[in-house]
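Internal tracking record. Fields below are filled automatically when a chain is submitted to the structure queue. Please do not edit lines marked as system-generated. If the sequence contains nonstandard residues, flag them in the REMARKS field before resubmitting.
Queue: standard
Priority: normal
Entity type: single polypeptide chain
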Amino acid sequence: MVSTVTCQEQGTPRSERWSPPFLVSSEDLSFLEARSSQEQIEIERISSMEIRVAGRKYCGRIRLPSGRWLQIQSKVPPARIMDWLVYSRTIPSLESWIDAPMLDVGTDAATALAALFLHELSILTNFHLRPGYCVVSQVRRAFRGRLVERKLARESRQLPALPCAFRDRTMSTVQNCVLARALDACWRLGVQNALRDESRCQLERLNAQWAGIERTLSSVHHALTVAVACPPVGYRNALQLARMLMVGAGFDLAGGDGGDSFLVSMAGIFERALRRMAAQWARRNGWASMSSSARTRFWDDAPRKRSFIADVMVQHPSHERIILDAKYKCGYGHESREDCFQMCAYLLAFKARTALLVYPTGMGNPRTLLQSDLVPSGATILSMELPMAKGPAECEAQMRQIMNQVADDHVLGEGSMHATLQRIS
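SYSTEM-GENERATED OUTPUT FOLLOWS
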């Protein structure tokens, strides 16, 4: 039986995107069908128990009930995925880790992130690891702190021992518990065999050093929020990487442990990165990047309270607006009717003149999809590409060139949009 099944995410050629056919157990099939209903993968049935799978807008690893792994590879190289994770502020800057010889981002994203986390956790353990205060509840014969009256009423049979609550120093702080859980997730992700020798040694050493840290958390998501919001000195980078491993890894509903899967939402990363690129362009050119509330409109069927949100919107002091919508798929040149209608709705709802569909698949020149008097000053819908596989710097340069020309057409009135596109090309 093949231990790892490999497929590609949405946007790669069909022949490469789908995995080879493989046999599955009934448990694996039910599990994969559940993932398909969550739009994480696609399934194609070949026979009753033989299938093949393909990714959608996620890349990463998924552990099947049988113990096999499903590996979803991205059309973006792994090293570039790390660049985009940093650029979208999903993980800390990589500058402080560049010189570490054991960091190899040439493998999949899960392995690269695990290596970065182990490197940062090793530094934390050597220089910053510390205990903290937390509330401890114990049944004690020597009274300390305050009496827990409700617990006393339920457990009065234990008198003269009293249930007490008090603050005490412990190594099992929320931050340390989160880091210990992320360390366990590295094992459960099964990346140890893909790590370099130095990182494998770090993993084994850290596992022994952190063995005494409590792993129990009443709410993992709440603990992650608290830990990352208020990190002790020296903890910030490790906690941000731990959050990525834990949230990306998901949670086992029975045991609550991360590591059964690790999925990175490439569509989410592209959208956040596009928002940052547009905001940087807006600041340099005197425009304003609009907040989420300003980018939200509600339909008038009040009982259902349905809304739609533009991914990115920038506004000139003259109140001219440009809307951008991130489309993480291979639609450039074959834009769907639904996407075009969506842009028309945005133009009407936000009283904008220009909307752009933005794809991550290359450096093609912008295409005009519609020029109309949809709004009094005229409306234009464009389609453009950014070379996501080449990294943030290339995308910023391409974005800056196109946005400068579109803004000139908006504010300076340097001719028709057709002439603008001629200048760009």
